[in-house]
Amino acid sequence: MKYLSATPKSLFILQILSLLTIIIGIFFVDTSWLYTIIAIITFYCYSIFGVSMMLHRYYSHKSFNLHPLVKWFFTIFAVLAGRGSPIGWVYIHRLHHATSDTEKDPHSPHFNTFKFLGFRPVYDDTKQINYFIVKELLTPAHINIDKYYMLIIIAYIITLGLINVNLIFYMWAIPVFLVSVSQIAFNYFAHMYGHRNFDTKDCSTNNIYLWPFILGDAWHNNHHAHAAKISSKVKPFELDPLASIILLIKSNK
Predict the structure, then answer these.
(1) CA nearest 159: which of 143, 171, 141?
(2) What are the distances in angstroms from CA 233 to CA 5, 102, 132, 202, 241?
């Protein structure tokens, strides 16, 4: 069986689909402050709980433990965030740490231009995948999430439409596209501009302008210096509210 079916090509399709849905939806969806609030909350659930907490700190760096029920609850946000399966995301992120700011880095701004849409090919049918990098994630559950990733997203969109067609716009298209833009900006600017607390081998920076969108993950230089830590805070102004939430919900086992 081939894993990592949630390829950059699939994620590019989601980018385009979410953008087209936004453009078309502007002329047809209902607008209200309630829908706006729903979109904002959904974005932060995807961005902070899905990407930052689960894909990044939990699955990639194993910084803390979670009760299985809590783990799978928040994994839902990780899957729906539109950034690929946990297997695929962790694979790319661990490659990033191992090859940071070299030509082999999946998304170094020093060897790749800023792309508002699209992804640099990291794994496809022509490149060998080193499954050892994500060996602990090669479980039946995660393999199925990866294999049926696009079907899961489509099923989610259909479910939203059956509940209320406006939710496709406010709970999928807008949040997913904003997650995509914020993550692309993060991968680029957090290795180009900002302050550095640690003299790491890469060019990682702490970028305060990214903070409103990704919170504590904006302190990227701190993270690269101590990747396994729950919190990325070093200086007093480098707030990391997600770390406080993790300390409340994490399991001691």
Answers:
(1) 171
(2) 35, 26, 31, 19, 9
Residue 167 is which amino acid? L
- Torsion sign, CA atoms 72, 78, 81, 86: negative
- Predicted model pTM: 0.91
Angle at the Cα of 149 from the Cα atoms of 143 and 150, rounded to 5 degrees: 155
Residues 209-228 pLDDT 10s: 999 999 999 999 999 999 99
Q: What digits encode the pLDDT tens for the residues 20-74?
A: 999 999 999 999 999 999 999 999 999 999 999 999 999 999 999 999 999 999 9
